[in-house]
Design goal:
With about 300 residues, the protein is an all-alpha fold. The protein has one domain. Helix content is about 60%, strand content about 0%. Strands 1-2 form a two-stranded antiparallel ribbon. Strand 1 (about 120-125) and strand 2 (about 130) form a beta hairpin.
């Protein structure tokens, strides 16, 4: 039943939500201008999937909030606690711009983000100072984002071997450098090494549980998918590495059982075939003179780095 009804009901809902809430970015212009990432990349395949984007984004924030300096920077200096819906939509759109927009558009947006981050600094409750443009913190944020989106795709959409996943991390190098994350992982091995190094820094916090409650309650998904929102939030917790979940006191109540995991895979697989004409992936293909269904009609044999 889900596979039969979901494509029809979700297609227009996602298109309407993008038009209503997202900042206005013309992904179809300038004609012919390439993005920071090539159209035949793994990144273009992963980010086209709305389920991977939603689940992966939440997983990334969970990992970010586990780092006390990043947590204070996000919670004390952003609009998320006051207006989570707008904040998450804008953050998702920033990811879309980074991957799909023309290079000149992406570079301008990233420069603005860096400028805003230049004013973000302070102290954690325990007295540790931080600056948002600290390279080490930026490396962690970029690593958690890459991990979240890719892990969500591999778990709930299409499994990929580690050597192929390496392409995803390497493809993000140019954008990571523009954000200031010059030491962001370039491979699965580097991502795992960074996560292992960071384990001694990560810690549980009431803010993390506030975040999960906000995500559960906010009107983030289109109406046809609203019943799945809490399920997808738990799907995000479920892909956080087990040892980190334990450290953050996220027990089995916050994850999925086997049947729920299978249901999310069905939703993610179906969502991967949704061609949304006004969505950034399709508009970016139009900008480059590619067919509208370029990202949906075939699976590439290799990926360009």
């Amino acid at each position: 039943m889900v596979t039969l009804l979901l494509p029809f009901s979700v297609r227009q809902a996602f298109a309407d939500r993008l038009a209503k809430d997202a900042p206005k970015v013309d992904f179809a212009a300038p004609k012919g201008e390439s993005a920071l990432v090539a159209a035949d990349s793994l990144s273009w395949r992963v980010f086209k999937n709305p389920v991977a984007l939603f689940v992966g984004g939440i997983a990334a924030v969970i990992l970010e909030l586990a780092e006390p300096r990043v947590r204070s920077g996000v919670w004390d200096h952003s609009s998320f606690p006051r207006d989570p819906t707008t904040r998450m939509v804008r953050t998702g759109m920033a990811a879309m711009v980074t991957v799909y927009a023309a290079r000149s558009v992406a570079e301008r947006m990233i420069a603005r983000v860096r400028q805003v981050h230049g004013h973000v600094h302070g102290q954690t409750p325990s007295g540790i100072t931080y600056e948002a443009n600290d390279t080490k913190l930026l490396d962690w944020v970029q690593a958690t984002a890459s991990f979240g989106f890719l892990e969500a795709y591999c778990t709930y959409v299409r499994w990929l071997p580690a050597d192929v996943c390496d392409y995803f991390y390497a493809e993000g190098t140019a954008a990571s450098a523009l954000y200031g994350a010059t030491g962001a992982p370039r491979s699965v091995a580097q991502q795992k090494a960074l996560f292992e190094t960071m384990r001694c820094v990560l810690e549980p916090s009431p803010i993390l549980f506030k975040f999960l409650q906000i995500v559960n309650d906010a009107a983030l998904l289109p109406l046809p998918l609203r019943p799945f929102q809490r399920l997808l939030t738990r799907a995000a917790v479920d892909i956080v590495p087990r040892e980190i979940r334990i450290l953050l006191e996220l027990d089995e109540r916050y994850g999925l059982n086997g049947m729920e995991r299978a249901l999310v895979r069905i939703v993610g697989t179906v969502a991967d075939r949704l061609v949304l004409p006004d969505a950034p992936p399709v508009q970016a293909c139009i900008r480059l003179g590619l067919p509208r269904d370029y990202l949906y009609s075939r699976q590439p044999q290799s990926f360009r780095v």
